[in-house]
Structures are given as C-alpha cells and as structure tokens.
Amino acid sequence: MFDPNSPEFTRPLTPPPREAPRMQLFVARHTPFFILLGVLVAQLLLLSLQITRSNNVRLIRVWAVAVFGPFQRSLRGGFDATAQSWRIFRDLWQAQQQNQELHVQLVAAHSQIRQLSEQAAEAQRLRALLEFKNQLPFQTVAAEVIAASPGQSSNAIFIDKGMDSGLTADLAVITPAGIVGKIIAVFPHTAQVLLITDPDSGVGCALEKSRVQGVLKGSGNNRGQIHYIMNEEPVTVGEVVVTSGLDQIYPKGLPIGTVLTTGEGNIYKSITLQPSAALNRLETVLVVLKPSSGQQQALNLPSRP
Q1: Of the given ranges (88-97, 117-126, 296-305), which has the lowest mean pLDDT?
Q2: Domain membership flag for residue 92
Q3: Cα gap 274→257, rounded to integer Å
Q4: pTM of whole model > 0.90?
Q5: Counting CB atoms within 10 angstroms of each CB, which of 21, 64, 144, 258 has the fewest?
Q6: What is the CATH number of the domain that holds 219?
Q7: Cα dist. 106→9, 71, 99, 102, 228 in Å?
Q8: What distance in Å separates the CA atoms of residue 1 and residue 244, rounded to the nearest whole number?
Q9: How far is CA 226 from CA 87, 107, 194, 268, in A?
Q10: Measured distance CA(138)–CA(174) in Å, rounded
Q11: What is the pLDDT of residues 46-55, one digit of tens each?
C-alpha cells in the first residue's frame, strides 16, 4: 500500500553523477599511447640534434628547412610582389607628376612662342610702315586702330589720334598696301575714319595702265564700284587702280586696289574693285596731314617720264 511517509519517498534526491568529458576519457583511455608517442618524438629530436649530414649540417636543420621552406618562399614571394607593386606605383606616380610639370612647361613655352611671334610680326609691320613713311613726299602721323563701328555693315573705324595730334576732318588714311579711307569726325584723342568701301565714300581714281579716270564708290562687303568709265575704254581684270588726286583728299598715285570684274553697261562700264589694303584686319595706319601750298603744288605737278 502506498505510504507517503515511507523513507523511500522522504529521502532527499541526489543529482546523478555528471558524465566526464569525452576528450578526457579519450586521453585517459589512451594515455600509454600518447606517452609512447611523446617518447618517440623526443628521441627523434635528440637523434636529429646529434646526427649530422654532409657539410656538418644537423638533421633537425634539414627537417626544419624542408618543413618551413615552402612557407618561407611563399612569404618572400608575397613580400617581393608587394615591393615590386609599390615600386611600380611609385614610378607611375612620379611619371604622372613629371608629365603634369612638362605639360605646364609646354603650355608656357607655346604661350611664349606665340607672344614672341606676335612681337616679331608687329615689329616687322612697324618697320615696313616706317620705311613706307620715310619714302612718302608728304607728312604723315602713325595711328593705331582701336575700334570699329558696331553693326554687320560697318565701314568705319576709330584710331587713337585726334585733335591733340593736329588731325582734322577729310584727311586721308593710308597703309603701305593701299588707301584706307578718310577722317569724318575728330575728337580730342580719337578720330573716326570712313572706309573706301562705305557707300557714302568717294575716291578719285585712275587705271594705272591707260590712265583713264573715274570715281570709286563703296559697295560694302569689302568691295567698291568704279563709275564714269566709258564702255569703249579697255579695262582688264587684275588691272591696278590708283588715286588720281582730283578729290583733293588722297595724294596722287597711291594704290587703291585691283579690278575684280568688268562689264559693259548703258553708257559706262560696270567695274568691281578689290581693295589692296586688308580693311577688315587693320592695326596700324598713317594719316596724311594737309600739305602747305608749296607742297600741294609740287604734288600736283606731273611727273617726268
């Protein structure tokens, strides 16, 4: 019969003994084997320390080299590859820096070459202008072109000389290549020049070969039209046209341009002229000053053959 007060049920419960770790059991079970293995290893080490091979190299050193040699070679190969990569990176970086420095020097050299070329061209242009000025029988003043009148159909420029240089209206403006135009407005330090290609301009002209005279009127687009030359007069393409001096502005005999096209009209020929001076690239010009009465008479005298 079930008795709750029975000593079997009143005894305190004790936990079952814990199971020993398997590793400890394994070691305890095979202890003699491990002792034997340790003794064999110790004997091998002692023998390797005592046994020597050729060249008095101990056997343990041979084994150590055989075991750790591959690892040493791998590590050395890795270090060598890293060092080689670093050297390549350093050389590339230095090359890039040198390339940038050389590029900067090249740009500076090109800029200097352009400046020297511009200075040389300007010196040559001024030398030609000075030689032309010294050959002229009349007095002139050199001036720089500083601006052009706004607009696509502009046929006027501004120069850096004005009243302070003794300039007045209706003075001729010329270059060694040919005439440019005449002054139409004068200011204290500047002046406005009307180009010969402007429709409001007019230049007394003559064909260089036949000496047939006419009047040049501007037609825009860097061209001019020669008027009042009869149809029966011979005119050839490429013939040089010079100033006649009859307009009392441009001295006689200065080049104006060449005949570009020619054709017959009702009474007068239709002649297109190409100016000799590069009117769209003017930089330096000469302004012809008014000559004295004696000089004017000398200029109007016909030259001897």
Answers
A1: 296-305
A2: no
A3: 5
A4: no
A5: 21
A6: 2.40.10.340
A7: 107, 52, 10, 6, 59
A8: 161
A9: 78, 50, 18, 10
A10: 12
A11: 655 555 555 5
- Would strands 156-159 and 255-264 be described as parallel, antiparallel, or unpaired? unpaired
Domain assignment present for 223? yes
Expressed as residue numbers, the domain containing 246 is 140-290
pLDDT of residue 233 exceeding 70, the answer is yes
Q: How far is it, in rounded angstroms, from Cα 183 to Cα 191?
A: 7
Residues 142 and 118 sit within 8 Å (Cβ to Cβ): no
Q: Residue 275's closest CA among 127, 174, 141, 160? A: 174
Q: CA 131, CA 143: separation in Å to the nearest integer?
A: 15
Q: For residues 163 and 5, what is the distance between their CA atoms, to the nearest angstrom?
A: 144
Average pLDDT along the chain = 82
What is the pLDDT at residue 112? Answer: 87
